[in-house]
Amino acid sequence: MVETQARVLATEQAFALVEPRPHSSCRRCDPVAGCRALSLSRIIGSTDRRVRVHNPLGAEAGDWVLVTVPRQHVSMAAFLVYLVPPAGLGVGLSFGAGASEPVSLLAGAALFVIGLYAARRELRRRRRSPLLQPTITAIYPSEPLMLEKPCRSKN
């Protein structure tokens, strides 16, 4: 399971709107700047980090909770986004290898776009599955301490 701490902003029926808490850096990468992964997420991350999650425990607005996502869902999403479209590009380019260069590029571009569409459609289908929803798995009685996990980034 992939997990993070979050604060519940609002609730509606069986769901809650939460804002994940940014994790602390371990400062192993760089003693001054800290975690490279955290720095990168600050640069490219959006300012609105609210997420709709399944709320089977009945957390209320203002509660601190632990939100988990099944690891296989995260892995499958990465596979679909990062491997399927480039694979379509490669297949399209190889199909058009016997033809002229413009035909090869057109075939590659077409299969790349088809791969993007297929990945997006599959992710939307999976998002509707209750088994793959981010879920509140614990409610903290007060603001929790930061989750301390060893840094996995390479130096």
Automatic annotation (TrEMBL):
- Recite the UniProt keywords alphabetically: Membrane, Transmembrane, Transmembrane helix
Return the Pfam families for the record: RseC_MucC (PF04246)
Designated name of the protein: Positive regulator of sigma E, RseC/MucC
The record, for InterPro entries, names:
RseC, SigmaE_reg_RseC_MucC
Membrane-crossing ranges are 79-97, 103-119
**Has UniProt tagged this entry with the keyword Metal-binding?**
no
Q: Which organism is it from?
A: Pseudogulbenkiania ferrooxidans 2002
